[in-house]
Hints:
single chain, about 220 residues, alpha+beta, 2 domains, 5 helices, about 50% helix
Amino acid sequence: MLGYARAGIVMTRNTGAMSTKARSQERDAGSTRRPLVFLCLFATATLLLAAWIASLPGTAVLWLIGCGCAVVTTVVAGVVAGARARPGGRAPWFAIAALTPVIALVALCAGLPLSVRWGVSQSAFERALGDAEPSCPDLEAPHDPRLVGAYRVTLICRHAGNVFFFEVHGEPDGFAGFVRARQALPEQGRPDDFPGGVVGGPVHYRSLGDGWYAFSAIY
């Protein structure tokens, strides 16, 4: 009887120790999981911001910001994947989380956000061609924005036979938007051919097909 009693005490102690260890592991997992969730949420928000920036017609600074955000997201996701890639961790799930920003970075550099956003907006821009002013007024004066497709446009006007749509966000140091050209435009145009006479830097055009171009112009 004494032996059974001792065995029971030992089993009780072992069970209590295992229970305490299990509770400790749960607390550790919970404390680790919360920062990882916040990191994943941050990575998702950064990707969405980068995609929005890359969908704008401007280039230069906006593209650098967009790709920089994607790189930061990739690094964060890689840290998360490394932290979880250990025995007992959920390595496959976090490996996918780390791979997603890499794919997104490739899509950003390929200009996919702009192509998709323009694709759902082109028909609205075609309809708005008839609303263009016969000439371009003062570009630096305030204008009431309007929604055309998925973009907010401040001004629609004609210049040298082309129809210019000035997008609200534009370039930080100039203008950006879309233009319906009567003939093919070069990748880099002359400032003298741009409306308003306020541009001193190069004017960049990117073909979107069907005679449409995204443009950016620097003061």
